[in-house]
Please model this.
Amino acid sequence: MKQTIEAKEQELKRIFSDDYLFEIPAYQRPYSWTTEQAGELLDDLLSTMGHSEPIEDVAPYFLGSIVLIKDPLYARAEVVDGQQRLTTLTILIAVIRDLCDDTVSKSNLEKYICEKGDKFAGSEDRFRLTLRDRDSEFFRKSVQTGDGLKSFLKQDSASLTDSRKRVYENAKHFQAELSNLDQETRDRLTMFLLQRCFLVVVSASDQQSAYRVFSVMNDRGLDLSPTDILKADIIGAMPEHIRSNYNDQWEEIEEDLGREDFRDLFSHIRMIFAQSKARGNLNHEFRESVLKVKNGEAFIDDVLVPYAEAYQIVSYAAYESTADAELVNRYLDHLSRLDNYDWVPPAIAFFRKHVNEHEKLVRFAIDLERLAYGLFIQRANINQRIGRYASVLRAIEAGQDLSVEDSPLQLTAEEKASIIEALNGPIYLQTRVRMPLLLRLDSLLSDSGVSYEHKVLSIEHVLPQNPDANSEWLSLFHDPETRNLWTHRLANLVLLSRQKNSQAKNFDFGRKKTEYFQKKGVATFALTSQVLNEPNWTIDVLEKRQKELLKVLMSEWRLGF
Model:
């Protein structure tokens, strides 16, 4: 058979049609999208579709691309890249189907999930998407089959595998969000989703071709990045007598930063100019938001060179000054521990503008770290973060005083209350938050805000999560409700520079201190050293410690009212 590669842009009503029967091969990783990613998708769809203009006039929404191994003559399509999108979209359509208040609409939506068989033609029902063998039957019964989703969402998810738990959590999230909308809005969303949302479908007739496409699209193999294309456009358009000089500047910056950081720099510059979340590919948005404002020479002289310098300072905590450099870099280090880099554009914008004003940089670094950790602890989603940092960028651009109470760089009273509530709750269960937060807290408890570099870091509970039946822990914390209240709170957590020990974690307190929390007789972390000074571990100790730790964080981040 002749090898072919075909790419075409198709709306979702064609994606989930008889043209395709998607199969996820066994070698693919499990479904892994979290509610943050699924929630971001739904937020984007709702904000983009609008409320008034006819659906056919709404701007098309690009959902990315998928790579398939597919014979043009047959519907069967093996998914090489794109299973996360296809699975999430199937979950979303299934939830919308179940929320429909009439049988006709339910039936109309059902066809995008399952191709109905025809007994007269001798054909059976065929689901549009089939997950990996180990999850396919589960997904059919729990999501795709008409009555399965309702009963699935009433179950306890504790016993599910991680991938199945992601399916449960995302379906639950979609159901909660869409239940708050009226049927008319849900119908509009469905029409927008099917008619105005597009995927680029790259179909290769054989595995080798499909993986070659996949490699190129993921900046592997033939590594042509978006910045390579922009470089050709920008420098290629310059007069020949200056082209060589600007090409040398471009390549020197790229070499200094490395290709990955260089590409990230362009994304951050796009954000500084556009002050909004990226909606399409970097090349197109960069041309629209940056290069329409700055021509090639002005872009390199006024944007690329100074922003690259600011980016290096911010990314590597490499600020240099005759005063306050150590303090500024300390707060940049704290920021680098977060699970997102949405704070970087306002940071490099401010440093580029005020690089020689160390007092302003100190105030800004302290306030940016406070805001970024505040959003982080509240688990603000990407749209909330981008919206907030866009406001900060506008304030920087306008030269506003960022220290005033109503500045977007400052926390509101409601945000302070929300942060305190989160800090005072079961913070260990916030898996992305707990390690950066405990390291931040430990730095405040240490002399001069010292930080540590360890190859291995872990978080341990003093009071174990599941004490042995005959341990002293159950006599000290005999009430299960009280024990559960304290297990995952700040007061009960310590840092260790070693892997967790499944046997030692249930030791009684005295033995746990000497044999587990100390390393060669010394506890490395201030958080852990404090615990070693306690003769017993009781509710009174926990209550006192919780207040003290909370007070330290509230003081540092000015969370009082």
Q: What stands out?
A: The two ends are 72 Å apart (CA to CA). The chain has three domains: 5-217, 226-415, 427-556. Residues 5-217 form one domain.
